[in-house]
Amino acid sequence: MQLQPPRAAELPVFAEKISGKENRPAHRHKGFFELLAVFSGACRLVVGSDEYLIKKGDLVVVKAGLEHGIEDPCELKAASLHYKKETLNGWIQELPEPPGSWRFFTEGSFIGKKPEFREGFHLSPSGLQYLEWLVDRIIAEGEGTDRASPARRKAYFLALAAFVAGQEKRLDLNAAVRTRAGDLQLREVVKYITEHYAEPIKVSQLAEMTYLSPRHFTRIFKEYFQTTPMNFITNCRLQRARQLLAEKNHSITQVANECGFSDSNYFARQFKKAFGVSPSEYRTRVAKRR
User: Fold this and answer.
1) Which of 56, 154, 253, 283 has the smallest CB count inside 10 Å?
2) CATH architecture, range 2-177
3) Is 249 exposed, middle or buried, given 0-12, 13-18 or 19+ CB atoms closer than 10 A?
4) So what CATH class is 185-289?
5) What's the CA gap between 213 and 13, in Å, rounded?
6) Closest Cα to residue 39, out of 163, 101, 124, 139?
Protein backbone atom coordinates (compact mmCIF):
# COMPACT_ATOMS: atom_id res chain seq x y z
CA MET A 1 0.00 0.00 0.00
CA GLN A 2 1.35 3.42 -0.92
CA LEU A 3 0.29 6.39 1.16
CA GLN A 4 0.99 10.08 1.03
CA PRO A 5 0.75 12.28 4.13
CA PRO A 6 -2.31 14.56 4.26
CA ARG A 7 -1.76 17.88 2.50
CA ALA A 8 1.58 16.52 1.29
CA ALA A 9 1.48 18.71 -1.79
CA GLU A 10 1.60 21.84 0.37
CA LEU A 11 3.69 20.70 3.34
CA PRO A 12 7.40 19.81 3.09
CA VAL A 13 7.02 18.77 6.75
CA PHE A 14 3.94 17.12 8.24
CA ALA A 15 3.58 15.82 11.81
CA GLU A 16 0.88 13.81 13.58
CA LYS A 17 0.42 12.04 16.92
CA ILE A 18 -0.17 8.27 17.08
CA SER A 19 -2.00 6.56 19.93
CA GLY A 20 -4.29 3.65 20.63
CA LYS A 21 -4.14 -0.09 20.14
CA GLU A 22 -4.85 -0.37 16.41
CA ASN A 23 -2.25 -1.86 14.05
CA ARG A 24 -1.08 0.20 11.09
CA PRO A 25 -0.93 -2.08 8.03
CA ALA A 26 2.18 -2.27 5.87
CA HIS A 27 2.51 0.80 3.63
CA ARG A 28 5.08 3.09 2.02
CA HIS A 29 5.31 6.84 1.44
CA LYS A 30 6.09 8.27 -1.96
CA GLY A 31 8.72 10.99 -1.72
CA PHE A 32 8.54 11.33 2.07
CA PHE A 33 10.81 10.05 4.82
CA GLU A 34 9.11 9.24 8.14
CA LEU A 35 10.56 9.85 11.59
CA LEU A 36 8.93 7.74 14.31
CA ALA A 37 9.42 8.92 17.90
CA VAL A 38 7.90 6.92 20.79
CA PHE A 39 6.76 9.01 23.77
CA SER A 40 5.34 6.12 25.82
CA GLY A 41 4.52 2.44 25.48
CA ALA A 42 5.90 0.35 22.64
CA CYS A 43 5.06 -1.47 19.42
CA ARG A 44 6.53 -3.79 16.82
CA LEU A 45 7.82 -1.97 13.77
CA VAL A 46 7.71 -4.30 10.76
CA VAL A 47 10.22 -3.37 8.04
CA GLY A 48 10.51 -5.83 5.16
CA SER A 49 10.74 -9.32 6.68
CA ASP A 50 12.16 -8.11 10.01
CA GLU A 51 10.43 -7.03 13.20
CA TYR A 52 11.76 -4.44 15.64
CA LEU A 53 10.61 -3.50 19.13
CA ILE A 54 10.57 0.26 19.51
CA LYS A 55 9.66 1.65 22.90
CA LYS A 56 9.60 4.86 24.93
CA GLY A 57 12.46 7.15 23.94
CA ASP A 58 13.33 5.37 20.68
CA LEU A 59 13.66 7.22 17.37
CA VAL A 60 13.95 5.65 13.92
CA VAL A 61 13.66 6.99 10.37
CA VAL A 62 12.04 5.05 7.53
CA LYS A 63 13.21 6.27 4.12
CA ALA A 64 10.83 7.09 1.30
CA GLY A 65 9.44 4.09 -0.56
CA LEU A 66 10.33 1.52 2.13
CA GLU A 67 7.38 -0.62 3.18
CA HIS A 68 6.70 -0.64 6.92
CA GLY A 69 3.89 -1.07 9.41
CA ILE A 70 3.08 -1.09 13.14
CA GLU A 71 1.78 -4.15 15.00
CA ASP A 72 0.95 -4.99 18.61
CA PRO A 73 0.94 -1.42 19.96
CA CYS A 74 0.97 -1.45 23.75
CA GLU A 75 -0.07 1.82 25.46
CA LEU A 76 1.54 3.50 22.47
CA LYS A 77 1.87 7.26 22.19
CA ALA A 78 4.18 8.40 19.42
CA ALA A 79 4.81 10.99 16.76
CA SER A 80 5.09 10.49 13.02
CA LEU A 81 6.91 13.23 11.10
CA HIS A 82 7.00 13.18 7.31
CA TYR A 83 9.51 15.28 5.45
CA LYS A 84 11.09 15.60 2.02
CA LYS A 85 14.76 14.73 1.81
CA GLU A 86 15.36 17.41 -0.84
CA THR A 87 14.07 20.14 1.45
CA LEU A 88 16.23 18.90 4.30
CA ASN A 89 19.31 18.83 2.07
CA GLY A 90 18.72 22.49 1.31
CA TRP A 91 18.64 23.30 5.00
CA ILE A 92 21.83 21.32 5.68
CA GLN A 93 23.76 23.29 3.06
CA GLU A 94 23.00 26.47 4.98
CA LEU A 95 24.62 25.12 8.17
CA PRO A 96 28.31 25.99 8.72
CA GLU A 97 28.93 22.69 10.57
CA PRO A 98 26.13 20.13 10.08
CA PRO A 99 25.90 17.59 12.94
CA GLY A 100 27.87 14.43 12.20
CA SER A 101 24.80 12.20 12.49
CA TRP A 102 22.82 14.08 9.86
CA ARG A 103 22.73 10.98 7.62
CA PHE A 104 20.14 9.60 10.07
CA PHE A 105 17.71 12.02 8.43
CA THR A 106 18.97 11.77 4.85
CA GLU A 107 19.52 7.99 4.60
CA GLY A 108 17.23 6.51 7.25
CA SER A 109 17.63 3.79 9.88
CA PHE A 110 17.38 0.85 7.49
CA ILE A 111 19.73 0.12 4.59
CA GLY A 112 20.21 -2.53 1.90
CA LYS A 113 17.91 -4.33 -0.53
CA LYS A 114 16.82 -6.52 2.37
CA PRO A 115 16.56 -3.63 4.82
CA GLU A 116 18.66 -4.07 7.95
CA PHE A 117 18.72 -1.77 10.94
CA ARG A 118 21.71 0.56 10.96
CA GLU A 119 21.10 3.58 13.13
CA GLY A 120 18.66 5.00 15.63
CA PHE A 121 18.59 7.12 18.77
CA HIS A 122 17.27 6.81 22.30
CA LEU A 123 16.38 10.00 24.18
CA SER A 124 16.36 10.68 27.91
CA PRO A 125 13.03 11.69 29.50
CA SER A 126 13.97 15.38 29.37
CA GLY A 127 15.11 15.07 25.74
CA LEU A 128 11.89 13.28 24.86
CA GLN A 129 9.87 16.03 26.51
CA TYR A 130 11.66 18.69 24.44
CA LEU A 131 11.14 16.64 21.27
CA GLU A 132 7.42 16.36 21.95
CA TRP A 133 7.24 20.12 22.48
CA LEU A 134 8.82 20.65 19.05
CA VAL A 135 6.42 18.16 17.48
CA ASP A 136 3.46 20.00 18.99
CA ARG A 137 4.79 23.27 17.55
CA ILE A 138 5.13 21.69 14.09
CA ILE A 139 1.57 20.37 14.28
CA ALA A 140 0.25 23.75 15.42
CA GLU A 141 2.06 25.61 12.65
CA GLY A 142 0.81 23.04 10.14
CA GLU A 143 -2.70 24.06 11.08
CA GLY A 144 -1.84 27.77 10.98
CA THR A 145 -3.23 30.05 8.28
CA ASP A 146 -0.97 33.10 8.46
CA ARG A 147 1.84 33.57 5.93
CA ALA A 148 4.60 32.98 8.49
CA SER A 149 3.38 29.50 9.52
CA PRO A 150 5.34 27.55 6.83
CA ALA A 151 8.58 29.29 7.78
CA ARG A 152 8.05 28.62 11.49
CA ARG A 153 7.17 25.01 10.77
CA LYS A 154 10.44 24.56 8.88
CA ALA A 155 12.37 26.27 11.66
CA TYR A 156 10.91 23.98 14.33
CA PHE A 157 11.68 20.88 12.29
CA LEU A 158 15.23 22.05 11.65
CA ALA A 159 15.65 22.58 15.41
CA LEU A 160 14.28 19.09 16.02
CA ALA A 161 16.61 17.50 13.45
CA ALA A 162 19.66 19.33 14.81
CA PHE A 163 18.77 18.31 18.36
CA VAL A 164 18.37 14.62 17.48
CA ALA A 165 21.47 14.50 15.27
CA GLY A 166 23.53 15.87 18.14
CA GLN A 167 22.50 13.11 20.56
CA GLU A 168 25.07 10.55 21.69
CA LYS A 169 22.93 7.66 22.95
CA ARG A 170 22.26 5.24 20.09
CA LEU A 171 19.96 2.26 20.00
CA ASP A 172 21.58 -1.10 20.75
CA LEU A 173 21.33 -2.95 17.45
CA ASN A 174 21.33 -6.41 19.02
CA ALA A 175 19.35 -6.04 22.23
CA ALA A 176 17.17 -2.95 22.33
CA VAL A 177 15.68 -3.13 18.86
CA ARG A 178 15.32 -6.59 17.35
CA THR A 179 12.42 -8.62 18.65
CA ARG A 180 13.71 -11.97 17.48
CA ALA A 181 13.73 -14.56 20.27
CA GLY A 182 17.40 -14.39 21.25
CA ASP A 183 17.32 -10.59 21.41
CA LEU A 184 14.18 -10.04 23.43
CA GLN A 185 14.62 -8.72 26.91
CA LEU A 186 13.46 -12.04 28.35
CA ARG A 187 16.00 -12.03 31.16
CA GLU A 188 13.86 -9.64 33.18
CA VAL A 189 10.83 -11.85 32.61
CA VAL A 190 12.67 -14.96 33.77
CA LYS A 191 14.08 -13.09 36.76
CA TYR A 192 10.59 -11.96 37.71
CA ILE A 193 9.21 -15.52 37.46
CA THR A 194 11.99 -17.00 39.61
CA GLU A 195 11.43 -14.33 42.27
CA HIS A 196 7.60 -14.35 42.23
CA TYR A 197 6.65 -17.92 41.29
CA ALA A 198 4.72 -18.30 44.58
CA GLU A 199 2.40 -15.46 43.54
CA PRO A 200 -0.35 -15.54 40.91
CA ILE A 201 1.27 -14.73 37.54
CA LYS A 202 -0.62 -14.10 34.29
CA VAL A 203 0.84 -14.30 30.80
CA SER A 204 -0.62 -10.87 30.04
CA GLN A 205 1.35 -9.48 33.00
CA LEU A 206 4.60 -10.91 31.62
CA ALA A 207 3.79 -9.71 28.10
CA GLU A 208 3.46 -6.14 29.38
CA MET A 209 7.06 -6.31 30.61
CA THR A 210 8.23 -6.81 26.99
CA TYR A 211 5.66 -4.44 25.43
CA LEU A 212 4.24 -7.26 23.32
CA SER A 213 0.77 -8.71 23.02
CA PRO A 214 0.21 -11.93 25.02
CA ARG A 215 -0.08 -13.90 21.78
CA HIS A 216 3.16 -12.62 20.29
CA PHE A 217 4.98 -12.83 23.63
CA THR A 218 3.98 -16.48 24.03
CA ARG A 219 5.19 -17.31 20.53
CA ILE A 220 8.58 -15.65 21.08
CA PHE A 221 8.97 -17.15 24.56
CA LYS A 222 8.25 -20.65 23.26
CA GLU A 223 10.66 -20.18 20.36
CA TYR A 224 13.44 -19.29 22.78
CA PHE A 225 12.78 -21.63 25.74
CA GLN A 226 11.02 -24.47 23.89
CA THR A 227 8.09 -24.28 26.31
CA THR A 228 5.18 -21.98 27.06
CA PRO A 229 5.36 -19.25 29.74
CA MET A 230 2.85 -21.11 31.94
CA ASN A 231 4.78 -24.39 31.69
CA PHE A 232 7.94 -22.47 32.61
CA ILE A 233 6.22 -21.04 35.69
CA THR A 234 4.89 -24.47 36.67
CA ASN A 235 8.34 -25.99 36.33
CA CYS A 236 9.84 -23.32 38.62
CA ARG A 237 7.18 -24.08 41.21
CA LEU A 238 7.73 -27.83 40.97
CA GLN A 239 11.51 -27.51 41.33
CA ARG A 240 11.01 -25.47 44.47
CA ALA A 241 8.46 -27.99 45.76
CA ARG A 242 10.91 -30.84 45.30
CA GLN A 243 13.47 -28.88 47.30
CA LEU A 244 11.01 -28.21 50.13
CA LEU A 245 9.91 -31.85 50.26
CA ALA A 246 13.53 -32.91 50.68
CA GLU A 247 14.50 -30.26 53.23
CA LYS A 248 11.45 -29.51 55.39
CA ASN A 249 8.76 -31.45 57.19
CA HIS A 250 5.88 -29.44 55.76
CA SER A 251 2.61 -31.05 54.83
CA ILE A 252 1.85 -31.53 51.14
CA THR A 253 -0.72 -28.73 51.35
CA GLN A 254 1.82 -26.36 52.92
CA VAL A 255 4.38 -27.15 50.21
CA ALA A 256 1.76 -26.59 47.51
CA ASN A 257 0.74 -23.21 48.94
CA GLU A 258 4.32 -22.06 49.46
CA CYS A 259 5.13 -22.84 45.82
CA GLY A 260 2.16 -21.05 44.29
CA PHE A 261 -0.32 -23.92 43.91
CA SER A 262 -3.72 -23.04 45.37
CA ASP A 263 -5.00 -26.61 44.92
CA SER A 264 -2.97 -29.39 46.58
CA ASN A 265 -4.61 -32.08 44.41
CA TYR A 266 -3.62 -30.23 41.25
CA PHE A 267 -0.12 -29.82 42.67
CA ALA A 268 0.12 -33.57 43.31
CA ARG A 269 -0.96 -34.38 39.76
CA GLN A 270 1.54 -31.96 38.23
CA PHE A 271 4.32 -33.25 40.49
CA LYS A 272 3.72 -36.88 39.50
CA LYS A 273 3.49 -35.91 35.83
CA ALA A 274 6.87 -34.18 36.05
CA PHE A 275 8.82 -36.62 38.28
CA GLY A 276 6.97 -39.92 37.99
CA VAL A 277 6.09 -40.17 41.69
CA SER A 278 3.69 -38.43 44.04
CA PRO A 279 4.96 -35.78 46.49
CA SER A 280 4.61 -38.19 49.44
CA GLU A 281 6.42 -40.98 47.55
CA TYR A 282 9.20 -38.57 46.65
CA ARG A 283 9.60 -37.53 50.30
CA THR A 284 9.77 -41.21 51.36
CA ARG A 285 12.46 -41.99 48.78
CA VAL A 286 14.57 -39.04 49.90
CA ALA A 287 14.23 -40.11 53.54
CA LYS A 288 15.34 -43.66 52.71
CA ARG A 289 18.41 -42.44 50.81
CA ARG A 290 19.42 -40.45 53.84
Assistant:
1) 253
2) Sandwich (2.60)
3) exposed
4) mainly alpha
5) 33
6) 124
